[in-house]
């Protein structure tokens, strides 16, 4: 994979908006006919807010789909009711035109991967890992991959069915959702992601950890990883705040 792709500024059309629950939505940004954008899984796009002339307001959103998809990128957004960009996205019905710059960012895997990968995310921090996993597995990655994913509610886990399907299809892939406010019928893991590191990853041999989301969670997971013996350089993260 190339490690530097020049970013471009372009307009895209928003389509296929889906409610993922818990104030989170899936959006697809379609390129104009004949256009595409190369990117490396883990990179993000910067979306321009339509401010009056003279003031540029932009926000970063991780690409949640694989670069093998050529006509659009997926985004996964959490509504910040007091915010600027996300309330605007929440007015969308489909077919809106938005201005975007991308690809941007350096949160990606090395060209050659000689380790097993532990992805840890909460909320929309799952977006870059969906792009990575949906690229690595179909491309024939033979190492082990885990997705340890923290969500608040068991009936609002972004892309839950997709993760379960991947787990059925690829024996080297394990999906571990953990729920902080489960309903009584939830039979899976409960509690915060950081409390699962020791349970599932006490043997750090041959593994690297990638974490994405809000900084408090990242710091807690990093601490838990160091405690079980991961060297600091084997724990890589991207902060949203
Ligand atoms: C590299 C990168 C990738 C990102 N990818 C995504 C993504 O895939 N999906 C996504 O939803 N967001 C993502 N973000 C966050 C995103 O860029 C915005 O910060 C977020 O959407 C809020 O924008 P806003 O204009 O609605 O609110 P703002 O006007 O920016 O914020 C309003 C207030 O809410 C606080 N705030 C901002 N974000 C959060 C949050 N997540 N939780 C709680 N409080 C918050 C701010 O500190 C501020 O006080 C990413 C950020 C970075 C740096």
Could you list the spans in which at least 5 consecutive residues all have pLDDT below 50?
none
Characterize the overall form.
Answer: globular
Topology order in helix (H) and strand (E) letters:
EEEEEHEEHEHEEHEHE
Q: Count the E strands.
A: 12
- Provide mean pLDDT, rounded: 96
Kindly report the spatial arrangement of strands forming the biggest sheet. 4-3-6-1-2-5
Number of helices: 5
C-alpha termini separation: 28 Å
**Ligand species:** flavin-adenine dinucleotide
Bin the strand percentage. 25-35%
Computed over alpha carbons, the radius of gyration is 18 Å
Regarding quaternary structure, how should these chains be classified? Answer: single chain
Query: What characterizes the major β-sheet?
Result: 6 strands, antiparallel
Residues in helices, as a percent range: 10-25%
């Amino acid at each position: 994979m190339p490690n530097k792709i020049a970013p471009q500024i372009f307009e895209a059309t928003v389509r296929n908006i889906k409610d993922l629950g818990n104030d989170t939505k899936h959006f697809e940004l379609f390129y104009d006919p004949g256009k595409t954008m190369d990117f490396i899984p883990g990179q993000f796009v910067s979306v321009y807010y339509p401010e009056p002339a003279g003031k540029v307001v932009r926000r970063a959103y991780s690409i949640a789909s694989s670069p093998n998809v050529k006509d659009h990128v997926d985004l996964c957004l959490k509504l910040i009711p007091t915010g600027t960009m996300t309330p605007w996205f929440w007015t969308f019905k489909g077919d809106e035109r938005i201005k975007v710059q991308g690809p941007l960012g350096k949160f990606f895997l090395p060209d050659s991967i000689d380790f097993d990968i532990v992805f840890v995310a909460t909320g929309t921090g799952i977006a870059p890992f969906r792009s990575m996993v949906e690229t690595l597995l179909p491309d024939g990655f033979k190492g082990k991959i885990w997705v340890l994913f923290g969500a608040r509610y068991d009936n609002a886990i972004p892309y839950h069915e997709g993760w379960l399907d991947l787990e059925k299809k690829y024996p080297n892939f394990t999906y571990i959702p953990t729920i902080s406010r489960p309903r009584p019928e939830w039979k899976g893991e409960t509690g915060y992601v950081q409390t699962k590191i020791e349970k599932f990853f006490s043997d750090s041999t041959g593994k690297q950890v990638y974490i994405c989301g809000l900084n408090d969670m990242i710091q807690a997971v990093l601490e838990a990883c160091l405690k079980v013996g991961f060297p600091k350089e084997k724990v890589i993260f991207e902060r949203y705040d």
